[in-house]
Automatic annotation (TrEMBL):
InterPro entries documented for this protein: P-loop_NTPase, Shikimate/glucono_kinase, Shikimate_kinase/TSH1, Shikimate_kinase_CS
Name of the gene this protein is made from: aroK
Gene Ontology molecular function terms on file: ATP binding; magnesium ion binding; shikimate kinase activity
Organism name: Leptospirillum ferriphilum
Keyword presence, ATP-binding: yes
Free-text cofactor note: Binds 1 Mg(2+) ion per subunit.
Name listed for the protein in its UniProt record: Shikimate kinase
Pathway annotation: Metabolic intermediate biosynthesis; chorismate biosynthesis; chorismate from D-erythrose 4-phosphate and phosphoenolpyruvate: step 5/7
Entry binding sites for substrate: 71, 95, 117, 176
EC number(s) from the headed UniProt entry: 2.7.1.71
Reaction(s) catalysed (UniProt annotation): shikimate + ATP = 3-phosphoshikimate + ADP + H(+)
């Protein structure tokens, strides 16, 4: 869902010419990233709408690694979509399944892993994430996130009921930002950066590791 929604926001849609140009830029950084010799999985954390799935797909392609999305892994376990399960069973039941998936991450073949926005809420999850690989926090300010989330507002589970989108985004950011900071090995201030720039920033961290 996020990859399709945020492709435009990250500037990788808009016709064949633009996609071709982005592909060339990704190829330019592939060699240096590959030389980094990354031994462990790369995990991306951040609030919903941060572009983790889009960035993760691009990074996985440059590294020639498999891509995993914890929300998709949860849905495979459930046999239905997260919004449907959430509406019927509630958030606590969803978080239990999510933790089961987090416990599996360290056993997956090395890859790039995009995580759900609320995955850091449990202390157990934060510990497991930190030990599963190198964690990058894709950090965006609420002012950047709000316009991105407006189009998908009705299709995502409400995190705080009966308050406007703007208020929810700001409140969730206040609650979770310290938790992302806690679990992350590196924080990427992504405001004003496109997907290629974020991939290049991650590249530099991996090369310098």
């Amino acid at each position: 869902m996020e990859e399709t929604l945020w492709t435009k926001s990250w500037g990788i849609s808009g016709g064949h010419r633009n996609r071709k140009s982005v592909g060339k830029e990704l190829l330019k950084v592939m060699e240096n990233i590959s030389k980094a010799g990354q031994e462990h999985s790369i995990l991306l954390v951040g609030v919903r709408g941060a572009g983790k799935t889009t960035i993760g797909h691009a990074l996985a392609r440059t590294l020639d690694l498999p891509f995993y999305d914890t929300d998709r892994l949860v849905e495979e376990r459930l046999g239905e979509s997260i919004p449907v399960f959430w509406a019927r069973e509630g958030e606590p039941a969803f978080r239990e399944v999510e933790t089961d998936i987090v416990k599996m991450l360290s056993g997956l073949p090395k890859g790039v892993i995009s995580t759900g926005g609320g995955i850091v809420l449990r202390k157990e999850n934060r510990s497991l994430l930190s030990s599963a690989g190198t964690v990058f926090y894709i950090r965006l300010k609420p002012e950047t996130l709000i316009p991105r989330l407006q189009n998908s507002w009705g299709s995502r589970p409400r995190l705080i009921k009966e308050i406007p989108l703007e208020a929810e985004v700001k409140e969730v950011f206040i609650q979770r930002d310290p938790l992302y900071q806690e679990v992350a090995h590196h924080v990427i201030e992504a405001d004003g950066h496109g997907i290629i720039q974020v991939v290049q920033i991650i590249q530099r961290y991996l090369v310098e590791k």
